[in-house]
Amino acid sequence: MSTHPVVADRALDRALDRAVDRAPAAAPPARRLAVVPPPASPSSTVRSVSQGVPAQPEGPAPSRARTAPAPGEEPLLPVVGGEEQVPLVTGGTARYANLDVAASAPALCWVADHVERVLPLYASVHRGAGYASQVSTAVLEGARDVVGGFVGARADDVVVWTRSTTDALAVLAGCVPDGGSVLVLDLEHHANLLPWRTQGHRGVTSRVVEAAPTLEGTLAVLADALAAEPTALVAVTGASNVTGEELPLRRVADLAHTAGARLAVDAAQLAPHRAVDVARDGVDWVALSGHKLYAPFGAGALVGRRDWLDEGTPYLAGGGAVAEVGLDDVRWAAAPARHEGGTPNVLGVAALAAACDALQALAGGALEAHERALRERLVDGLAGVPGVRVHRALEGAPSAIGVVTFTVDGVAPGLVAAVLSAEHGIGVRDGRFCAHPLLERLGLREGAVRASVGVGSRAEDVDRLVAALRALVSDGPGWEYALVEGRWAPVDDPRPWPEWGDPTARAAAARPCGG
Ligand SMILES: Cc1ncc(COP(=O)(O)O)c(C=O)c1O
Q1: Gap between the Cα atoms of 447 and 153, Å rounded
Q2: In CATH, what number does 366-514 get?
Q3: Domain ranges of the chain
Q4: Which ligand 1 atom minimizes the distance to the CA of 289?
Q5: Cα-flanking dihedrals φ and ψ of residue 129, to 5°?
Q6: Whose CA is nearest to atom 1 of ligand 1?
Q7: Interatomic CA distance for residues 440 and 432, integer angstroms
Q8: pLDDT tens-place string over residues 82-112
Q9: pTM of the predicted model over 0.90
Q10: What top-level class would CATH report for the domain 156-342?
């Protein structure tokens, strides 16, 4: 038996599963991953990855006789690390409250188990004749149906494997027809602002429309911009990574199509939180990331219309992307192979498909009810803390995912985040969230704090955040902090770090997107 801590933890989970008479999830058949996720019983999935030693379960032993908790009270699905204890500067430990899932979500236990199941038959794909190669190829190819189904793809849509949403939108940028114009809103993540700007050598241009403060106003300025100039593609986010507010995709698609444009949706934030249905909503392409979908193994996808993808610039020139190669010429393959040069990430794709299956298997409306309850609890709780302000960008947006950005009057966002982490064991994000133009327009040049919830979150996480902010506002920090290389950090931080992940050993603090 492996002694790797993660593997050991899952062995522990299985033992706990048996102890509470939970049926472990059945191994999915080779092609279609028909997953029935294990029932959420988070208190039975205690892990201590950092120490490799299982922590003791908190609270009462899990019982099948428990009455169903209200939405948001408990995690909807168990995630790896959901019960992890982290050290505090003030001494002792606290269960890690991960309120930063919008940046990268923890793996579903189901996903981690599935990857472990696939690993023994992991091998080269497409070209191998061996048994394991054939299984791995089936995993990779079968997953296209799963992920396509997860986003409601049409029968003739293509699923291209990518590393992430950024990667997927870059693939699409290379496929915008020569001379085409791309229209984006200023509230986009950089991943959906920048790729279009790299195609100038082909005459592709991009225009940024400043969104209005209201949803209706924003749809109106979008319509005006579409009427003003011929547009090949409208590229918008499905849900803002800053405010969580959603765009009504059917209405945006109708505006785009009426003007003769196609619609691409950055679903990095939307897909983990809401059912995406490209066929129903008339979306031409959708981009998503596995690591935001509880499958942090390095895969993402671009799903949508075949025509542009068959004709566009091959994303990675190399093996697998070609039909025929001569010394002076090359005949490129059609999509998806055209954009998948090199060896694909089979395990990442297996994980992504398993996550999609697990989320799809949730009872209808359960995901939305869970996150709506947590978001409301969070927004209401923040509203009750003096000096805390929640920021919105699209008044009238029909709904919002569990992503909330706020500031605390008189306290730097980085200091707020450092205090939450060091004194309370709460993980949030601070900075400008790779959405500089939106933060600028919202008057948040110095950044803000973002809390985000997902299937592994619970009401207690939110309550702890609100209580910690209340304490910060009334009493100030309980420790001394200083700016170190531009980041707030506790002075003489006594917290122990795992030897394989000691942040004090790194050369320089990385500041993606300048915060
Ligand atoms: C709305 C949105 N789009 C795109 C991205 C980029 O995703 P990735 O880093 O997985 O490429 C993010 C990441 O935070 C995001 O929130």
Answers
A1: 37
A2: 3.90.1150.10
A3: 1-68, 156-342, 366-514
A4: 10
A5: -95, -15
A6: 241
A7: 9
A8: 999 999 999 999 999 999 999 999 999 999 9
A9: no
A10: alpha beta
